[in-house]
Write the structure tokens for this entry.
Amino acid sequence: MDDVVVVGGGTGGTLAANVLASLLAREIDRGEASVTLYSDTAQHVFQPANLDIAFKGAEPRKYIRDERKLLDRRVKLINEGVDRVDLGNRRVYTETGRSQNYSYLIIATGSQADPSLIHGLAESAYNFHTGPWDAAKLWDALKKFERGKVVLAIAGVPHKCPPAPTEAMFLLDEYFRKRGIRDRVELTFLTPYPHAYPSKPIADVVEPLLEKRAVNVNTFFNLESVDSVKKKVYSLEGDEVEYDLLIAIPPHRGSKLAVKSEIGDRDGWIPADKHTMKVADYDEVFAIGDATSIPISKSGVVAHLQAGIVAQNIAAEIKGHDGHKRFNGRINCPLEVGGGRALFVVGTYERQPMPMKPTRVKYLMKKSFASIYWLMLSGRLEWLFNLYFREG
Amino acid sequence: MSQQRRIIDSRGSFCPGPLTDLFKAYREAKNGDILELWATDPAAKSDVQAWAKKTGNVVEEVVEEQGYVRIVVRVAGKGG
């Protein structure tokens, strides 16, 4: 009996469980294999929509679904968080004390944005990284904002979705222009990186656009603390910037599970092979998506591609087939620049992103993904994505 | 308190990997500490030099090793 346990019901965990259930359908029906997904929430959020919720007033409920309904009927869903894993004895322990042995383990516990990691940040800043409802609070604040300084700061690295902060600056500009009050609002972007986008070729495209829209970009700003009374943010070097409305990309950390199980670094990121996603010394344990310390963007597309590869490799091993797949580090992150245009940040481990002109077609591709996301999670579109990523 | 020396191995990581790793270590460092960044990303050298110049930290050494660059930074720019 081969028992595959998946921990985490985000993009990577859900897709991995579904692909496994599909590839192992016969074995599961015969009682020779099982796929169990542990998730600490019964709901699944389409996280890229947080930008639309925060800056365009989209309705959060549209982007939340019941996790059970997204899963193949052969996947056993257990709505409990996993407290720790014992890799030596191949066993997971849940927060309520339940435990289960596994033959294969996929850790897809994601990343957590945690404003409490920076002094003063939680009580002073809005953000769109801690969930759709917090993104909606930012939208409410923007609607009431009439004039003054809006500051958006990257408060820690790495963070989920590298394009999101730059994209947010474009969307803020667009929002205030639509309201006809752009001349009363000063927009400032604080980033620890040397450019308005971490990758220089992409920065070369977006920086002239931000300049044209009078967005201030303050580079090499490593945020240390916020004083919510004085309404100032401070850098590690003591520089200060005033704000009237502060938006932050909170620092992120990995899962507590990783720290508690002593399989991650001190921030909870799990070291794993960047091509196979195997956790060192354990051929039957994999970490995918944001949860790892693999040097790649923390993004849905990475979780998606890694989940598909790991699920196929596990299924091949169970079925006794050859032909293991490897992840080449492909990223494919949309970046909206306002005005109904977008570009994609595309690269691999070996090929850094190249400049790309923002177009209407790319924007429509980004928007259309929101509607196919739920179907994508079923695994039934893997053939299409495999084709796209092979040719793209 | 004694000075710390920390090696940050970012080899195999493209931009912004090396800077991300450096900033994580810098956040925990104090003035006087040495951070030694190992990177294969060709942009790392100029990015770290620009960062140090702007923030008051000091690039003490840049050494081209076999297949990677070793950038030694002395933390000097931290406020307060």
